[in-house]
Amino acid sequence: MANIAPGYQFNPLTGMRKKRPRSGGFGGGSDVIERLLGRSGPAGSGGGAGYGSITTPGFTPNYESLIESALGPLRAQLGAEGSADAASRNAALTRGLGQFGEQFDPSGAQAAFGQDFYQQAGLEGLLPQANQLAQQNTQAGFSVSSKLQKALEGSVQQIQNALAGRGMLRSGAYGTALEGANQEFRQGQYDARQSLTDYLQAAQQGFTAAERARQTQLYTAGREEAVRQATLNPATGTWEAPYSGQNAPDGRPLYRGRKGELLYADGSPYTTPGTGEGADAGQALEFTGQNAPDGRRIYKRRDNGQLVYDDGTPYPGTTGGSGAGGGDLGGGARDPFAALQAALARGREQRLGSQQ
Description:
By secondary structure, this protein is an alpha+beta fold.
């Protein structure tokens, strides 16, 4: 009985064993593999040539937020200075009104000092406290108004005493002298109120000048910060990110961004395993193409050339054999296209060997 090898087919006419097809096993070779991997590159392209490039979108930073964040400390400082100056101005206005001794209602204050000044200086909120202080000073005889009133009363008494001594108290001379005393009182009252107005305006002008200086300082700082942010964070247009020739540990291709950072196909940043940092950390380590004796991959730090493992720990010894996957960034992170091609090649070799 003939010894028939299992699993083989024979031509009934010749009795010879049929040859198996020498294709890649998928019926379409690398074209099918390309479609399975979702690539658009030409059939048979090796390495990462089939990945092409990706277009990353343009980006305009939120300059308003960046500038506001940078100016935050200065704005807080200037705000505190403004609050302190406002408190000092209010105290000066209240003290001036209290020392003058006349109590003002809102309409009287606007008539005496002007509506614009009344609003700018915020007198409406200061009048209650100022009127209370004016009343206390007047009752104690310390206010300017009380002193003017006492001076008028003293002048009238002197006129009466002088005319009475000459028997002229009921004469026309008394009326004339009394009118002169009243005129002197009104002039003193006018001068005192003018001095009060000058004092209040000087206090308000000092506050206004300080406020303008603070606004100018903030405006200048804002312009300088705008230039700085535009330099540090320039707006960018779209960018054609080429395939980097490297793959992530999960097999996804990586692309080279505008600043050299590694990106996934969706534009998100790639992080080097073990670093726990952002996109820039992906550039901290570069695979050397070699493995340690225990199989772990060996990377080179780009800042000082030190050999380390993927978790950043130093590699103490010499490297072992050449690591598979060349430019991959993690253990087993081989190009999936190359891996499939290699698997198919091994399968063909095994089949050919079994046919021998």
